[in-house]
Automatic annotation (TrEMBL):
Top-rank taxon, per record: Eukaryota
GO-annotated molecular function: protein-lysine N-methyltransferase activity
PANTHER family associated with the record: SET DOMAIN-CONTAINING PROTEIN (PTHR13271:SF137), UNCHARACTERIZED PUTATIVE METHYLTRANSFERASE (PTHR13271)
InterPro entries for the chain: SET_dom_sf, SETD3_SETD6_MTase
Organism expressing this protein natively: Gonium pectorale
CDD domains: SET_LSMT
Name of the protein in question: SET domain-containing protein
Length: 309
């Protein structure tokens, strides 16, 4: 993993590999040492943990908690951490406890939120709990809320990159302000000399146009919500699978009529001939030619649908 900035390596870049015990970690070790030389030495217990066998996001969480606690006056990391979303505004699934998860409504998301929340709270108890966590002497988290906040930042605001065969995760102050778009006009990468993290435009931007990157070109909203805590209206990757049949099943006419009746502003039962415009529609039509035209079209549509049943 690799917290860094769009600055030179020694100023604001520290790196650890995603799997330091199972692969190459030359670049990560070099970045970690450069970062400490430029800023401050980390406790040996923390550096040992950062190069240990815990998952990359757990190690990055430990690092971010330490930076937030120990470097509030740092000219780069201090303002960056201070401007990150507070815990009560974080929406990624790690933060959805049993009661909150019910609001997600989709069974798949409810189950995923439960899995992520249980895992994250288990990580807090094992490593960061001030009473019995393995890193309790470092006093990284005053509460579970602090751990979940830092883990959420790590999960939603980091970049993945590969340097000389080394898989890295990077936290880049302010570069993570680049929003997602399926019509992205920018990308990110390490510089050719591997001393900077860069955001690069793919085309010229017009005045006032936002630079946007891709968080995943093929992700449907379920995956976007799962990974980042938001959804994209009109996501082009959201599709409803249809059965492989030459002819689709017949629609339920009664259900279709009820849906249309409610959708176009009518009340009553079309089966009994009592369907009529709702009062707000009638009131809106008084003295307004355009509204009266809309009302007439709705009446005609309802009549045609009823006649065809």
């Amino acid at each position: 993993m690799c917290p860094c900035a769009v600055h030179r390596l020694a100023r604001a870049l520290v790196a650890w590999t995603d799997e330091p015990l199972d692969g190459i970690s030359i670049f990560g070790d070099r970045c970690q040492e450069a970062w400490q030389n430029a800023h401050t030495r980390m406790p040996s217990e923390l550096t040992d943990f950062l190069t240990g066998d815990a998952r990359w996001d757990v190690r990055m969480t430990a690092w971010l908690l330490w930076v937030a606690s120990e470097l509030p006056e740092h000219p780069i990391w201090g303002p960056y951490v201070a401007n990150l979303p507070p815990a009560d505004e974080v929406t990624c699934l790690i933060n959805y406890g049993p009661d909150d998860a019910k609001e997600l409504q989709m069974r798949e998301l409810v189950d995923e939120a439960k899995t992520q929340y249980n895992w994250a709270t288990g990580v807090h108890r094992r490593y960061f709990c001030s009473e019995r966590g393995e890193l309790r002497r470092l006093r990284l988290a005053a509460s579970q809320r602090d751990t979940l906040w830092a883990m959420s930042m790590v999960r939603t605001r980091t970049f993945s990159e590969s340097v000389n065969g080394e898989s890295l995760t990077l936290m880049v102050p302010y570069a993570d302000l680049a929003n997602h778009s399926f019509r992205f006009n920018s990308t990110f990468c390490m510089s050719r000399d591997n001393r900077r993290f860069e955001l690069r435009l793919l085309s010229t931007l017009a005045a006032g146009e936002e630079a946007a990157i891709s968080y995943g070109e093929s992700k449907p909203n379920f995956e976007v919500m799962r990974d980042y805590g938001f959804v994209v209206p009109g996501n082009p990757n959201d599709r409803v699978p249809l059965p492989q049949q030459e002819q689709l099943p017949h629609l339920n006419g009664a259900s279709l009529m009820d849906s249309v009746r409610w959708g176009i502003g009518f009340k009553g039962d079309w089966r009994e001939g009592t369907a009529a415009p709702k009062r707000p529609v009638l009131e809106a039509s008084d003295g307004d030619p355009q509204a009266r035209l809309v009302l007439a079209r709705r009446r005609r549509l309802l009549g045609e649908l009823a006649a065809g049943m």
